[in-house]
Amino acid sequence: TADGDVNGFRLRHAFIKMHWDNVSLLVGQTWHPMFVTDLVPGTVSFNTGAPFNPFSRNPQIRFTYSYDKFKFLLAALTQRDFQSNGPGGFSSSYLRNSVLPNIHGQVQFSSDGHVAGIGFDYKKLTPRLVTTKNVSTEESISSFAATAFFKLNLEPVTIKAQGVYGGNLADLMMLGGYAIKSIDTTNGIEQYTALKCLSAWLDISTGKEIEFGLFAGYSKSLGADDNIAGSYFGRGTDIDNLLRVSPRIQFNSEKTRITTELEYTSAGYGKPDNTDKGKIKDIKSTSNIRLLVAFYYFF
After folding, report:
1. Could you tell me which of 288, 298, 299 has the C-alpha nearest to residue 45?
2. What is the per-residue pLDDT across 105-132, written as a single tens digit (0 to 9) for each?
C-alpha cells in the first residue's frame, strides 16, 4: 500500500466460506463487519466514504446465523494492512500482544431491499511489552465502538446512512486512537486512555440510465475520559471535526459508465489540550475541493 509499490499486487479478499441451511462460516481476509457491504456509499472517489465510513479489510473468522429476515453475526479479527498506531508506528503487533482478537457482534434485518442493523465492537491493545526503562509491562487499552445503519430502497430513490460512536478507531481509517494518561517515572510503565469520536454519513441516489447522487459525512472528535500525560497514538489526533459533501452524476449504458463527482472536504485543525482530556482547542478550518471523472467497463 506504499507509493513505492503502487502498481504491485496486494491481497484484498481471500477467504473460504462454507454454507449450511441457516449457518455460514467464513475464514480468511475480507471487509471488517463495521464496513457493511449491503450499504456501501456510492461515491466516485476510491475513499468509499472514509473517514466517515469505517474502512478496513481484516483476517478473520466470521460466524453468521440467519433466521427469517434476521441475520446474527459474530467475528474474531486480527489486523494486516489496516493497523492500530502505537509507540513503534502503525503495526498489528499491539493487537497480537494482547492475545485476544478484535471481537465484533452484529444484528441485521432485511426485507424487500430494505436493510437495518446495529453492531458492537471490542478491541484490546497492548502497546508495549517492555518499557523504555527495560521493565516488563502488560498495560493495555480496551475500547468499545457501536454502529447503527440502514438502507431504504424506495424506487427510484435509495437512501443509505450509518452512524459510528467509539474509541480507538484509527485502524478503521477514522479519527481517534489513544493516548498516555499516566507514566510511572521509576519504571516507565504507561497507562492509556482511548480517544473517542462520533461519525455519521448519508448517501442518497436516484435514477438508472442517468443517476444523481449525494454523499454527506460529518465526524467529531470527543476527546478521552482522562487527562493526557504523554504521547498520542492514532489518526488525526489534532483534528476536531471533518465535513464532506460530494454530489455526483453517472451516465450508465449497458456495461459502460461515465461519472463525475465534486468533493468538498473541510477539516478543523487545532491543538489537543492535555488538561482537558485531549479535546481540540484553537481550531482553524481548512477546506479542499476535488473534481473526479471516472470511466467504467463492467465485465
Report:
1. 288
2. 999 999 999 999 999 999 999 999 999 9
Rg (CA), the chain: 21
Interatomic CA distance for residues 21 and 23, integer angstroms: 6
Task: Determine the 3-state secondary structure of 4 from DSSP.
Answer: helix
Q: What is the pLDDT of residues 155-195, one digit of tens each?
A: 899 999 999 999 999 999 999 999 999 999 999 999 999 99
3-state secondary structure string, 256-299?
A: EEEEEEEEEEEEEEEEEEHHHCCEEEEEEEEEEEEEEEEEEECC
pTM: 0.93
* Residue 98 per-residue DSSP state: T
| 151 vs 203: CA distance, rounded Å | 9
Torsion, Cα of 129, 131, 135, 136 (10° steps): -10
What cell numbers appear for 139 in the block?
Answer: 498495560
Closest by CA to 185, choosing from 153, 226, 229, 123, is: 229
Q: How far is CA 131 from CA 56, 124, 128, 177, 190, in A?
A: 30, 18, 6, 20, 8
Are 129 and 136 spatial neighbours (Cβ–Cβ below 8 Å)?
yes
- DSSP 8-state class, residue 194: E
Alpha helices (runs of H) in the chain, residue ranges in sequence order: 93-97
**Half-sphere exposure in the Cβ direction for 285 (13 Å, CA):** 9
